[in-house]
Write a structure and sequence with these properties.
The complex is a heterodimer of chains A (294) and B (378). By secondary structure, chain A is an all-alpha fold. Chain A is 71% helix and 2% strand. The chains are: A mainly alpha (294), B alpha+beta (378).
């Protein structure tokens, strides 16, 4: 009787509906992550994993100056790239949402157009623009100016490349948020004494803060894990944490250390997302739906 | 040249006695002249209604006053100052919107105090003003709620409080009751009159609802196609509509049109689809012209056939009673006249002797209606 009831209950339906998502997370996130976590406490010797549990990998990456330098570099790079993307994306998304009219969808797709070509091609294209014989420096030397060394195989080049790569996510996140934003609220703000800038600060930004946070997370995480971009645009001295991490799984074959680096990367990314979303107060986000479980 | 300068100076001087003055304001949207050469003065302490159908330009005019729309031509004076070039946040106005437009991420208290915060008023002063306005709109104790936790009427009160808290020179209201249900609308009408009387801030109120305009305001401007058809005291508009449009818009619900057959003294006789009818003669009308005659249903009487006791000079026509809509104090009677035209009469309910399908007498005084030259108006 109880079984029959369960088979017809809403619980079962909910369970069945959640299954594909749950399986996906278990197989593609949880199991690989658990494996990495386990490996990070092991040891590699002559390209084989040896299961003697220890904390040496973590001690190494947290006390060796080189690893810490790369970690700090990547962290600064990710913060800078996220921040610049944020500043740049707001006007773009705002313009599309407010004045795009019937071209809104096309304009939004256009910001994502470079994605159609794949990361490697995009980064190579950036190289063609920024490199020593790239468009910018060719132009500068042709008109008799010195080439910009700043743009050649440097962290600035990497930063520019990363911004270019991930900015569509930020634009899209803010744009989607602005789609549900009632621009008439700005009329109300202005009537009540707010200048346009003040109205943005008091009304537009707080009401689109969740979307902005999603954008920040979507830019920060891939930037923090970047390997291809610094490799192609950063040059010999441009390696970031991701490159060093990739290295452990390549020629050096120190998988256990690499796993520990991966766990640290995951932890820092999670921490970033956690801190960013700590700033969200659902009551103050204009979110009007019922909070689950309330 | 000098005279012009002097006149302009004089005009400037005059404005100070008005809360709001519009001088020859115009606004063009493409081919459409949304506001066409409108001039207006609203006195301090006045409750003024802009009444018109949708598309008449009343909301555009309100937005021009607010600075949300720029005036193509003309000037706007608020509190004696020329604010034509000022942005909305530098005009000293308050505004209540049709869909309230409360900030969903701010509490009731924060919403209401917003204009004070923008004015960089001190916290104690803000608290004072907030407390005063919460008392006025009877929303004490709701300060910490969010707008989505309020009912429609409460949102309306908060919107009003936000509009009034900084004691603006003028409060603009854009169909503020349109989103409320009937019960609440009646209640808010009474409340709004009370607020307005208590605080003495002039209200400029946009509505398409003639009943609302008549209930609330002291003066009314009836707007059509971007211009004012008539501006005046509400009773004046009600008793002496200047144009056919004003007459039909202010609830004169029986429209009769026909050709003038002959004239006698102040009256004309028209052919209304086979019925000869006596009506007051509009200015400059000769036999052969077409005219429209508007008759208010409550100025008419209905009686069972043969039992009418009309006042001297009344017209009495026989008809068949088609339907009765009971409204409480009175009933609306729908009748079909001998020429197959329909009329509505508002009279005291008489269930005893008035039966649907029965023959009735309909009577009215010709002078109780208004006639205009028919210029293609419906």
């Amino acid at each position: 009787m109880a079984v029959k009831q369960f088979l017809h209950s809403k619980d079962l339906k909910a369970l069945a509906l959640s299954l594909p998502g749950a399986l996906f997370i278990i197989f593609f996130l949880f199991i690989p992550l658990a494996t990495i976590v386990v490996y990070s406490f092991w040891r590699t010797e002559s390209y084989t994993m040896i299961a003697d549990w220890n904390l040496n990998n973590y001690l190494t990456i947290l006390t060796t100056k080189t690893y810490l330098t790369f970690l700090f570099r990547s962290l600064s790079m990710s913060l800078a790239v996220s921040f610049i993307s944020l500043i740049y994306s707001w006007p773009v998304a705002y313009y599309i949402a407010k004045y795009g009219g019937r071209y809104r969808l096309i304009l939004t797709m256009l910001t994502a157009a470079p994605f159609f070509t794949g990361i490697l091609l995009r980064v190579t294209a950036m190289q063609q623009i920024l490199g020593p014989i790239g468009v910018v420096n060719m132009f500068l030397s042709n008109i008799g100016l010195k080439p910009l060394h700043l743009l050649m195989y440097s962290h600035y080049a990497t930063g520019l490349g990363l911004i270019y790569l991930w900015i569509p996510f930020m634009v899209l996140a803010i744009y989607l948020s602005l789609l549900t934003f009632d621009f008439k609220l700005l009329d109300a703000a202005m009537i009540n004494g707010a200048s346009p800038l003040r109205a943005f600060w008091e009304v537009t930004l707080p009401l689109n803060w969740i979307g902005t946070c999603i954008g920040l997370a979507l830019v920060f995480i891939p930037t923090f894990a970047a390997t291809i971009t610094p490799k192609f645009l950063g040059g010999v001295n441009g390696a970031l944490y991701g490159n060093i991490l990739a290295h452990q799984f390549g020629s050096t074959g120190t998988w256990a250390l690499g796993s520990a680096m991966g766990v640290l990367m995951f932890t820092i990314s999670s921490l970033f997302v956690f801190i960013v979303f700590k700033t969200v107060n659902l009551n103050r986000s204009g979110y009007t739906g019922k909070i689950a479980g309330e | 040249m000098d005279t012009n300068k002097f006149l302009f100076f004089f005009k400037d001087m005059q404005t100070s006695s008005y809360a709001l003055q519009l001088v020859e304001v115009e606004k063009q949207f493409g081919d459409v002249r949304a506001v066409d050469n409108v001039s207006l003065e609203v006195k301090k302490g006045e409750f003024f209604a802009l009444l018109g159908p949708s598309g008449s330009g009343k909301t555009t005019l309100l937005r021009i006053i607010a600075g949300l729309e720029s005036a193509g031509k003309g000037s706007v004076f608020i509190g004696g100052k020329n604010v034509t070039k000022n942005p909305p946040y530098a005009r000293g106005i308050g505004m209540v919107f049709q869909d309230f437009l409360l900030f969903p991420h701010k509490t009731v208290g924060e919403n209401i105090a917003f204009p004070l915060k923008m004015k960089k008023m001190s916290a104690t002063h803000q608290q004072e003003q907030l407390s005063w306005v919460l008392d006025l709109v009877r929303m004490k104790g709701y300060e910490d709620r969010f707008p989505n936790q309020l009912s429609g009427g409460q949102k309306q009160r908060v919107a009003l409080a936000r509009g009034l808290v900084a004691r603006p020179d003028i409060l603009l209201l854009d169909e503020p009751l349109a989103n409320l249900d009937r019960e609440l609308r009646k209640e808010m009408e009474v409340e709004m009159r009370r607020f307005q009387a208590e605080i003495d801030i002039p209200f400029v109120y946009v509505t398409h609802n003639q009943e609302e305009a008549l209930t609330l305001s002291n003066r009314i401007a009836v707007m059509k196609d971007g211009h004012f058809e008539q501006v005046g005291d509400k009773l004046e508009l009600y008793d002496e509509p200047a144009t056919a449009f004003v007459a039909s818009f202010l609830g004169l619900n029986n429209t009769i049109s026909g050709e003038v057959l002959r004239q006698e003294n102040d009256f004309s006789f028209i052919d209304w689809k086979g019925i000869e009818l006596k009506i007051p003669t509009p200015n400059g009308i000769k036999p052969g012209d077409r005219i429209a005659y508007y008759l208010r249903s409550e100025k008419m009487h209905i009686n069972p056939h043969g039992k009418s006791n009309p006042v001297d000079g009344s017209i009495t026509l026989t008809a068949v009673l088609r339907d009765i809509i009971f409204k409480g104090q009175y009933s609306d009677y729908f009748v079909i006249l001998d020429n197959d035209e329909e009329m509505v009469i508002s009279d005291v309910p008489d269930i005893e002797s008035l039966k649907i399908g029965g023959k009735v007498d309909v009577s009215w005084l010709p002078s109780s209606g208004f006639s205009f030259a028919a210029d293609g108006e419906e």
